[in-house]
Structure formats: structure tokens, C-alpha cells
Amino acid sequence: MKFDFFQNKFVETEIMPDKLAIAGSDIDINWSTLGAIVEKLSVIFNELKIPQGHPIIIYGHKESFFPSSILACYYTGITYIPIDKIYPINRIEKIIEQTNSQILINCTDSDVEINIPVIINFEFKIKKKQIPNYSNSVYGTIEEPLQYIMFTSGSTGEPKGVQITKKSVLSFVTWALNDFGFTPEDVFLNQAPFSFDVSLCDIINAFSQGATLVLNSNEIVKNQDALISRIENYKCSIWTSTPSFAFLFLRHSDFNAIKLKSLRMFLFMGEVLPHRTCTILKSNFKNVKIVNAYGPTEATIVTTWIEITDEILQKFKLLPIGYPSPESEIIVEKSSSESKDGELIIVGEHVSIGYFKDFEHNKEKFFIHNGKRAFRTGDIAYFEDNLIFFLGRNDEQIKLHGYRIELGEISNEIFKNKNVVDVVTIPLRRNNEIKKIVSFIKINESQNYGEIKKQLYNQLEKTLPYYMIPNEIILLNEFPYSSSHKIDKNKLIENYINSM
Hints:
The chain is α/β, with parallel strands linked by helices. Among the domains are: 2-241, ANL, N-terminal domain (Rossmann fold), CATH 3.40.50; 401-499, GMP Synthetase, Chain A, domain 3 (2-Layer Sandwich), CATH 3.30.300.30. Helices cover 29% and strands 30% of the residues. The protein contains 14 helices and 29 strands. It has a nine-stranded mixed β-sheet with strand order 4-3-13-12-14-15-16-17-18, with helices on both faces. A five-stranded mixed β-sheet has the order 6-5-7-8-9, covered by helices on one side. A hairpin with a 2-residue loop joins strand 27 (420-430) and strand 28 (433-443). Helix 1 (31-47) crosses helix 2. The protein starts with a strand and ends with a helix.
């Protein structure tokens, strides 16, 4: 049994309906139960007369009802907004205010104090504070129905909604079914928050294959022993995460192919995959495929994909982000003919129709190229051997004392020291003026920090112009991480300032 995203229905329903579909943080459900939940929710959606294009909120944290509710939205063509309960209530209320959403599905087992007309709970009970009014809150078009809005952090401090159409989702599904190599026997380890589109990669691929989805709560994720036990117990085969999240497990004695026999693929996205992390993983998991993928939320989960083979690892110190999907085109817009790199632009059906009610940023970031939607990512990249390489953000290009500096280039040079296991380079500002550059590093435990620091400055003096050498290189035992398991640079700066 599986879900056909093109027909919006369950197919092959007679094949293994009792197979595990979702292992939630609360309960496990089989495919037959998943189908029944989706059917019940579709009846409720119909009773509430939810129009196509009106976004409903799905709220919770790794309960089996959450991805079931997402699937019900695909089944019925309803637009949804996934919101993990790790986010504060005032952020949720801002999103409701922006979208005028009238319906919330509460996947948790407790009441939520959120001001919204209708709340549906996991027992299918409806709490109606007032009659829903959908006028002036229907979005998308008949030609381009809106499937979901993923809210990310905006530069203004307000949540920024990325609008993804049904057509964009189908573009991703087509690519995944043809090229990703997943099977109905796969078991997807899902740990990213539902408000982060890395999680959607697991959900869509598990449901389209008729596979199994294993959800892991924040409490489990923070307990490495518990997560490793869960991988072992459910025989998880596909690990999807940011590289930073996997890096946290590299020192665990059980994080290897002997203990975790079921793992067959690491799928990384959301961040740069460091060469060192990949090397250690290949040593610990010799026969496990390592895939590096890239793609902003604005281009429907991922846009490029490549398996990192031993040959690639040996040939490139900076690992490639791969080849684009068949339905997309990657353009590197160079500032001059002499430049090797430039801004990465994504073109294709999978590109978002724009940010929700944000005309100014839409005009800046989205445009039409040869009749197709295109998105200026703000990422710097270059081509080599027909492969795409990611250098960092264009907002990581700074000016200090009149010199233009790529922070990613500094980090890449520091990474060349074999004793450095992770590095982040950031600019420190005062009154919007950059005053200094600081690199934060983690090193192999057996090494002496003072000696490594001396080696690094000697190395950098030979490879970088003097104005690019960090004013400080600071050792950290651990990097702070955001809720989406990325290194939290704002927290790094805050901790640094507080330590002065």
C-alpha cells in the first residue's frame, strides 16, 4: 500500500495494509490505519467547507497524527502550514494573523491556547469558537493550486512564508521516484522539525514508496543512546539530516556499521557537508551510501543531488553539491567575465511562486527566465567538471578596511588542517560596521589547542592575504545549534560578546 501523489489517492491497497506506516513519538500506526485517518480528516474538511487555497495550520511535534494530517491535505488538495510546537505561541499567532487561517489541527494530546476559529484534535473532535470565514484568505490559483506554505525566519524578524504549489511538489516526487533509489522496504529516520522542509523529504518519499516513517521527538534527538536504540529497533535504513546533526554522533562508540546494520544511506542537506565529516563517516560506515543534496526552501526541498564516492572525496577538498534535477536549470551569474564564481540561480517548475504577501522581496528574488520561474538564492557557487560547488552566502561576503572578503574561503583554509574537525567564521559588528573577524573551531580531543592555533596562523599567513586572517581563533568544545540542527551563528556571537 502506498500513496500516489499524482492521483491524490492510496493505491495497491491490498498489498501489506498491516505494514508499519508511521512510528510516532506517541503511537505506531499501520498503512490501513493511516488510510482511515486520512479518510476521516477528508470528511471533516468537507463538513467545514474548507476551500482549495485556504491554508490550515497543522500543529504538533512528531506525533503520528502530524504526517497523517499532512497526507490528508495532499489527498484533498487542501493547503497547509506545518508548525512545530517548539515555536512560541506568539510566532504562531503572527502566522495566523498574516494568513487569516481559520482552522488548526492539534496533533498533541493537550489543549492549545491559540486564538483561531476552529480546532480539530487528534481524536477528530471539533472545537468551534466561531464560524470560519474564508473570505479574503484563499490563495493560489486554479492553474497553480497552493499545496503548502513553509514559514522560515525573515530578515525583519517576522516569519516569512514560502509558497509551494502542487506542481512544484510533483516535480520533486517525479525526480525522487526516478533517481533517489528508495524502495518500499526503506525505513526513514525523521528527526528534523516539521517546520523545516528537510522533514518533508522523509515524509513524501516514505509515503510515495509505501515505506515506513520513524519520527523522533526533540527529547529522543537530544539523547544519543535513545536515538541509536530507535534506529536499531526499527531497522532504519535512510538517515536524513544536516551534516551538523550527524557530526554530533561521530564520537559515539555505537555510531558505526557494526551496531547500525540497517543504515544504507546518509542523505545530507541544509548545510555544507564538510570533507572531514564525510571521511569519518566513510570510515565508520564503509558500505553506506553518502549523498550530498542542496536546495533552499524556495525550490521545494532539494535541487541538486550527488553520491560522494571515494573518488570524489579524494579529488575534491570542497565537496560538490552535485547535479541539478532533470526539470531544473542552475545558472551561476558572475559579476565579471574573469570571475569563476557567482550567485546561484535556480530555474524550474519546482521554484516557489514567491513569498507570502511580500511584494518587495518577491521582486528582488523571483523572476521569469525563458518562460520558467527563477529564484536568486543569495548563494555563491561555481561549476567544475560539470559539477556544482557551493562557496557560501553572498551575505558572507564582507568588506573590512575596504577589502572584500569571503568568510567561506577563510573557513575552507582553516579546514585544511587535519586536526580541525569543524569551523565557523563570522564578522563582529559595532554600529553596523565590521570591526573584526573571528573563527570558532573544534579540534581532535588529543591535540593541544595552543599548538594547533600556532599551526593555523602559520598556515594562513602563507595562503591568505593579511587582511583575511582572523583576528581571533577560538576553541569551542561544542557549537550551539538552532532548532533546525544548523550551527547557530547568532548564538555564537552572543556567547562571544558575553564572554568579553
